[in-house]
Design brief:
The chain contains 13 helices and 9 strands. By secondary structure, the chain is an alpha/beta fold. It is 50% helix and 14% strand. The protein has helices spanning 9-23, 43-56, 72-76, 88-95, 119-134, 139-144, 148-154, 172-181, 193-209, 231-245, 260-269, 273-276, 287-321, and strands at 31-34, 61-66, 104-107, 110-113, 162-167, 184-189, 217-226, 250-251, 256-257. 46% of the residues are buried.
Length: 322
């Protein structure tokens, strides 16, 4: 157990620096937060597949799993390899001030910082920092604890074209950290009421994080695990989510279909749908569904890039007008 708290002096300096860069228009939006207040909405699968698809386009991508479960090792097939460190590198960066160092390349151009049980100590630290901040009368001290991840990520952000943060569903301190560190937010959601409630939970935390991160913006919501043939149902789901968002962001055109057998095979093999679409060791009967699922992820990656470019352009124009 840690008996002393992390000194936030360096964090506060890093936050001042990033706020200055934002004010001067010199802080590029490149960090994407994938988050929902509820688990089981496809967040980890979406993050891993999206990161791999973006890396395939030639981008240099950092995928960071801010989750004690460490599911990416199964998604990417890195369990029991040097790339799986149970969250040790991430914890060292946040708790000990060491550089945020990926454990390696899970795919060409895709660098990973895994999650895992080592993040339990990080979460404990964040709760302690939040309680201490509540006792301070200094506004900067009250907010600085939320920027611990932002400070660590900012130190390496120039090394990557895209940074994806996959955030644990039930941990408010980790979600606030990610929302302060990121500039764009992508929310996967199913059609059930609890998934939509999780979306609204993120919206509340989003508003809180904006105090330290004026560049934070909702990129959109991805409808996950849908029946691809039920077009009318999909439209109804999108309408419901649009109402929940109240015009704050779009619901992505591309949905991710539900193919339970494909999801099981992917995790069993430690490979992504795009890698198994034509694999000889996959049941031939499953290949059409796997190819379709791979197509969903590819299309979503392109849509994310397009929507992000539109949002970046709009914000740039607003900045020039101001």
């Amino acid at each position: 157990m840690r008996l002393d708290l992390v000194d936030l002096t360096g964090v506060k300096a890093a936050l001042r620096r990033r706020m200055q860069l934002m004010a001067e228009g010199l802080f590029a939006a490149k960090t994407l937060v994938v988050v929902n207040g509820k688990g089981g909405v496809g967040k980890s699968s979406l993050s891993a597949a999206l990161a791999a698809a973006l890396a395939k386009t030639g981008l240099r991508v950092l995928l960071m799993e801010m989750d004690e479960q460490g599911n990416h090792c199964e998604d990417l097939g890195t369990s029991a390899t040097v790339l799986a460190d149970d969250g040790q590198a991430q914890a060292a960066a946040i708790l000990d001030g060491k550089p945020l160092t990926p454990t390696g390349e899970a795919r060409p151009g895709l660098f990973v910082v895994p999650g895992g049980s080592a993040l339990e100590a990080v979460v404990e630290e964040l709760y302690c920092q939040r309680r201490l901040a509540a006792l301070s009368g200094d506004p900067e001290d009250q907010l600085a604890w939320m920027g611990m991840y932002a400070a660590a990520i900012d130190a390496v952000r120039d090394d990557y074209d895209v940074i994806i943060l996959d955030v644990a569903p039930g941990c408010e301190p980790l979600q606030l950290q990610a929302l302060v560190a990121g500039e764009r937010v992508l929310i996967p959601s199913k059609s059930d009421p609890s998934s939509r409630k999780g979306l609204r939970t993120v919206a509340r935390r989003f508003a809180h994080a904006r105090g330290l991160n004026p560049m934070l913006a909702l990129l959109g919501v991805v409808v996950f695990a849908t029946n691809s043939s039920a077009t009318r149902v999909q439209e109804r789901i999108k309408e419901q989510l649009s109402q929940d968002l109240n015009g704050a962001a779009r619901v992505m055109e591309q949905t991710i279909r539900h193919v339970e057998a494909a999801a099981v095979v992917c995790r069993t093999h430690g490979r992504l749908p795009m890698e198994l679409a034509s694999a000889s060791d996959v049941d031939p009967k499953l290949r059409p569904s796997m190819k379709a699922l791979a197509g969903d992820y590819r299309s979503l990656a392109l849509e994310v890039l397009q929507v992000k470019a539109e949002l970046d352009r709009t914000e740039l124009e607003k900045g020039h007008a101001a």
